Amino acid sequence: xxxxxxxxxxxxxxxxxxxxxxxxxxxxxxxxxxxxxxxxxxxxxxxxxxxxxxxxxxxxxxxxxxxxxxxxxxxxxxxxxxxxxxxxxxxxxxxxxxxxxxxxxxxxxxxxxxxxxxxxxxxxxxxxxxxxxxxxxxxxxxxxxxxxxxxxxxxxxxxxxxxxxxxxxxxxxxxxxxxxxxxxxxxxxxxxxxxxxxxxxxxxxxxxxxxxxxxxxxxxxxxxxxxxxxxxxxxxxxxxxxxxxxxxxxxxxxxxxxxxxxxxxxxxxxxxxxxxxxxxxxxxxxxxxx
Amino acid sequence: xxxxxxxxxxxxxxxxxxxxxxxxxxxxxxxxxxxxxxxxxxxxxxxxxxxxxxxxxxxxxxxxxxxxxxxxxxxxxxxxxxxxxxxxxxxxxxxxxxxxxxxxxxxxxxxxxxxxxxxxxxxxxxxxxxxxxxxxxxxxxxxxxxxxxxxxxxxxxxxxxxxxxxxxxxxxxxxxxxxxxxxxxxxxxxxxxxxxxxxxxxxxxxxxxxxxxxxxxxxxxxxxxxxxxxxxxxxxxxxxxxxxxxxxxxxxxxxxxxxxxxxxxxxxxxxxxxxxxxxxxxxxxxxxxx
Lengths: 290, 290
Ligand SMILES: [Cu+2]
Ligand SMILES: [Fe+3]
Ligand SMILES: [Fe+3]
Hints:
Two copies of one chain form a homodimer.
Chain A: H1 9-16, H2 23-42, H3 47-63, H4 70-77, H5 80-88, E1 126-135, E2 145-149, E3 174-178, E4 184-190, E5 195-196, H6 202-209, E6 215-216, E7 219-225, E8 232-238, E9 257-258, E10 260-263, E11 266-267, E12 273-274, E13 278-282, E14 285-287
Parallel strand pairs in A: 1-13, 1-14, 8-9
Antiparallel strand pairs in A: 1-4, 2-3, 2-7, 5-6, 7-8, 10-13, 11-12
Bound molecules: copper (II) ion and fe (iii) ion (2 copies).
């Protein structure tokens, strides 16, 4: 430890952690230090570049607060969130795949009866969503708790915009449902639209410098919880979206892409008669037994 | 990009940066993403662990302000600062080695004449420091700008404690000098003591979890600027310090360790007569011609 130089520093840092009493923490930190140092060596990081990185992380920290999490955004756009999601959610073939959670989930969203309009004032063309939740063996799963959340026609989630006179509800285009005795669900909402991730901060500047856009393809978020099964957190993506091949957070899996079908005004799947054109989406979920 | 999974995610992120117009930025980010993903794969990072990392970085960001830089502290304790310093400051044999800058430098410290007492009220046993600054060929360097800064007997830098009634000066135990026509310098200050890096924040908690202490061996900081030579930022460490083998920020190089010699009250090197015991340090610097 007295002879620290470019060649000995990594070993010195690892040796300093020899007394760590938490084996898992030690494993993680040993690996982190090795890869961090390998990176700095590989690119021959300069002192100026190091300082820019310090300033960048400082800016990420300072824009982060209770409603904005720029570190998660950074993890998302670097593909780390998707990697961690993927390597912790391997499922047997036939199960619905998981994807990133995202920053816009809200605990304890309003509960709705099947068939309800969860838009709750959010703007957009009407969309009827339906499907079935099954176990891997094909058995329909009754009473599955389903959380759904999505952005509105302007690409905003309710949490990004406080209620207004025309949109007085705090919770818009999000809700909780339960599947019926045959595992079926259906609800009304609005058509999902592509949206940019928050890009007025340091992560947005980084994307711009990298020649990347901040857009995500249109999607609905789902979280499904059924007794005896792994919890599933995923999206359903709208087919033909222009951003399916360049999702800013790398969340797209081809099995999660589904057709949203446009219908002229007239009878809807729930028996109602729609006065405006409307959309339908049908998607079935298969959960992994525990 | 529609078929993102554990195996394809890294390549997808790299492909997304293909449009980057800044080649150096792209090189850095390509390497960063690869090493970051390798780390997450190697340790099979879980979603819980990922979230703890997000919370840790958030805490590091929130404690960082104008006078406290927890990201630099984090870089220091992970050995990254030393690695970056070392790989950017390789010098020919015979030159004084560089080490980490640290967070306690202050621009435009007070200027002192050679022989002055730069303690300026900082507490500690008196110490007389002297030496010579030379070029690699042995030629003495006159008029070299020398910044020196150090902690006091309690292990604090002036910037960590506002002035008080008994210590009314803002700048204590720091100053700027110039070498004389023979390249010599000398000044009076106080004996350097070991000190802990700030450890009441997330980095301190991390060190504790890793079984590491926050202490640095006693040292003086120097920055030397001479025409026609590379700027040198370094420390001189006090020999026999108990932390020389476990510096929390990995800054020690054996060539930078020097003896501090204790003397009983009596005549000092500058011709004065000291009424208390005092210390002397002699250290010569060799600068690298540009
Ligand atoms: Cu690596
Ligand atoms: Fe989303
Ligand atoms: Fe220091």
